[in-house]
Structure formats: C-alpha cells, structure tokens
Amino acid sequence: MGKVTNVFEKRGCVGFGLQDGAMVVEGSELLFVNGERYSHHQTVRSVQINSHSVQVVAPGERCAIRIDDFCEMLPPNNSNVFMSRGPQAGVSGKGIVSRVFHDPDTIGIRLEEGVLCEGDWIIIHGDDDYRHEQCAVSIDVRAVDPDAAVTGRKFGVLLDVDPDIGLPVEGDNVTVISIKK
User: Residue ranges per domain, the chain?
Assistant: First the structure.
C-alpha cells in the first residue's frame, strides 16, 4: 500500500506515501513492516496532510500518522505500510474543476474518466498545496440518473468549504474515491 518516507521522533509520528489503493481513516488499521526487524500494528486515529486532518488519502499522496505511545520504536524509513483492516477504497474517477460558483459555494466538475456517485469522496488538488476533500452528497447532473455522473459529463457539487483554505479554482484536479462496501 505504501512506504514510510519520514520519521519524526520528537512528534512520535511517521510520514508515508500511498502507492496503491486509497485509505479511509475511520475504521482502518495499518501494519508497518521492515524485514524481520520491525513489525507494528497501528489503529488509525488521526492522519494529516500538510498539517490538516484528513478523512481519506488518495494514491500518490503523502501523509503523516501519529504512532501509539506503547510502541517501543517508530517504524524506520522505507518500512512497508499495509492496511490490515478497514474499508476498501480506490480511485473510481478523475476530472477537473470547470467552474466555481460563490453563492452557494459550488463547483462544476468535468469528469475525464470513471464515475462519481453520491456517497463517494472527492479530493480537489490545486497549486500551492491546496487540498479539499468531502463526501459528495449533493450532485447536480441534469441527466437520467441524478445520483451519479459518468465520464464526459459536467456536473455540479455543493461544497462544504473551510474558510481557511477557500474555494478551488478552475483547472484544479479532482480525484474520486469510492469506498467499497
């Protein structure tokens, strides 16, 4: 699933990059392994990207997790990271922000591949480390199936924006994370 890239001894946490799949924070447990020298199971309680707590992590993203106090030693660099328990998730679509509306805070998305359904998570990445994530609970497709958007369609999503990070801009990338039940 991933590899440890940074060890922060003073903070008691490690950074790792996700290589395959996606990770849902709630209900997940990770296994850190480094050959026969190191093995540690960790219940996921808090994951951060750029000092902000997140609920989902997409492939290619780097995040940090606090390691439990009862752990004798932090996972060393290059340790493998596996999900040993938790919701299975993966990328089900990709697109770009095509329009931004300020009242109400809504974005238009053009889906370039895959599908987005109500209940999926969207992660928006922009310049300068901009990152917004949320569950897609309000999709305006103006199509036959109002609960899903498919490749090539434009649709709107109502945003629940943190005022500290603001709205995305046109051209920002959108990744859709689907949680398999």
Answer: 2-86, 89-180
Cis peptide before 104 (omega within 30 of 0): yes
Strands 121-125 and 52-53: unpaired
| CATH C-level class of 2-86 | mainly beta
| Average model confidence (pLDDT) across the chain | 88
Residue 18 has pLDDT above 60, yes or no: yes
How many C-beta atoms surround the C-beta of residue 162 within 10 A? 10
Check pLDDT > 90 for residue 104.
no
The structure tokens listed for 27 are 């209900």
Mean pLDDT of 32-43: 90
Can you state the percent helix, strand and coil of the chain, rounding each to 5?
0, 55, 45
Fold of 89-180: Elongation Factor Tu (Ef-tu); domain 3 (2.40.30)
Same fold, 2-86 and 89-180: yes
Which pLDDT does position 156 carry in this prediction?
A: 84
